Amino acid sequence: MDSQTPIESSPVYKMTIDLNVLDHLGINLYSNIAAVLTEAVANAWDADAHEVKITIDVQDNHDFIEISDDGVGMTIKDMNEKYLHVGYRRRTSGTDTTSSGRPVMGRKGLGKLSLFSIAKEIEVQSAKDSERHGMVMNVDEIRRAVEEKAEYSPAPLPVDKIVVTKGTIIRLRKIKRPRISRSVATLKMQLARRFSIIGEQYDFKVIINDSPITIEDRGELKVVQFLWRLGETNIALPENNQLDEQRNLEPRDEAWDESWNVSGWLATSRFPKNLETEAGNLNAVVVLSRGRLIQENILDKLNDGRIFTKYLTGQIEADFLDATQESDIATSDRQRLQEDDTRYVSLLSFLKKQLSVIESQWNELRRKNEVEKAKQESPALKKWIDGLQPGFQKNAEQLVAKISSLTLEKKEDKTELLRHGILAFERMKLRGSTEELAHGVLDIEKLLVLLADRDSLEASLYRDIVKSRLEALKDFCKIVDDNDKEKVLQKYLFDHLWLLDPACERAAGSERIEQSLKTQFREFASDLNEDESKGRLDIRYKTSAGKHMIIELKRVKRIMRLPELQEQGQKYKSALQKCLESQGDKKPAIEIVFVLGKPVVESEEATLGRTYVEQTLAPLNARIVYYEEMIANAQKAYSEYLDQSKKMDTLDSILSSL
Question: Which pTM does this prediction carry?
């Protein structure tokens, strides 16, 4: 080819179509440079090119775009009869495959007019069969020819300007700036999504400003989390992708023609924001046929408002939409399809079914993967989930998955939300409403409302009871060990009567502390004797069951003799009985409890047995309780609380470790 020499004579070029179509099918049809470059790349593919180079240089004083390919090129005859013949239909004029067997992309013969939508001057050079030639088309000159109803003849390029040696070179000048505002990176992304035949697999390379378009440039394949394949689709994923799992979908529909095949893929990102790029939102499903774009976003046409579709992206390849033997359903710019065509309607129906399958799997996949990631990032969270009963684990995982998938600016905000979510979940376990929490979270606002509502129940839930009673036991043990005075013990036991007997419940309004027989009882019984009047009660209260209790506390190290207990018990009972009888209670039920630290003695050397002491005190309906015994009984009675405390201590540890 290098031995070719430019044609010395001045060839004549003729455009053989009414030029009014330029306004409707060229100059005003394409709105962006990506669509224009799509047509140029498709023409290079049809010319059996292996490499297409696009150079974009738009500056203040120099506007220039060049598209060159190493395809079969054109002779002057080819240029006139095919390239300049607007509306030339290659598929009906010959075969629908190229000489190398590629499926021909072009169909309407209008793509060449797209160049006029971004440039006022177009230069085309081509080389084939020892011919190297070129021409220049000018929009203003074309318009004048249209107005004069004259035939338009592009100007031949001077011989010294012809540089092509193989294939075709197209140069665009006098660029319309508003239509080429996209960056090179943006154009690479758009072209990568508009073709499925770019790459080594198809021996077809597209280069923009010395930078080859690769799978990396697609954008969406970097950020998808779950991917569903249609048919035997081979997807070369970019490096460092975020894909967690792949699955397969049924690529056929029973209602379809047997020749209709669909391939491609549908995928979801982890967050909707991952699909937002400088080139636009990739929350779209493009449809390709014969390896090139034929529908920019069919997702818009599905009118599916389900939440998961906000995470959706994908690429569908359906060659039957552009089958040569069928009518052409593509619009003039080949960016959209005629929506009333049976093939298009069937494709929409098919995709709706696939989306329903994807949604059911997406919910479960996201729960599983979000939870696994969260557990990997936080061993404490894993410990909490794994420690739950199987019946609660699924709801807990759903809650964690939804919180983890929320889009929050700060990681600490999500951690704090997880803490509140775990606390709310633990509270709601008692109410059997964990499912409400797991399924009721669609966004952060709803979650916060739900958590705020559960926070209001905190005071009445078991965790506070557990913590307060266990702390009380610890404090009481310390008081006993320190041999604090009776008054301190009395005050503490008054506030925590459950230590004496977990079944004790004080009747409302019955509490009395340090009650003096002289000041308290004389108001009701004037016949109290001097001893009765001088007596005093450590604690006296009426239980909710109607029994009156007198509790007398002794210091831990004080040694008591049995006659002392008998005398004191008789005095208390007599005084209280007179007071209650004066109020109309003729047969009051009175019980006396002596709280001691040491066994009862008869003399300094002789300790009395427990049974003997209680038999002696029985006529007074009195009994003794030792401090250590009281603590042991409380610990036994609240063993369940102790067990729960260990769990809550673990939960506290988990929450603090998040």
Answer: 0.62
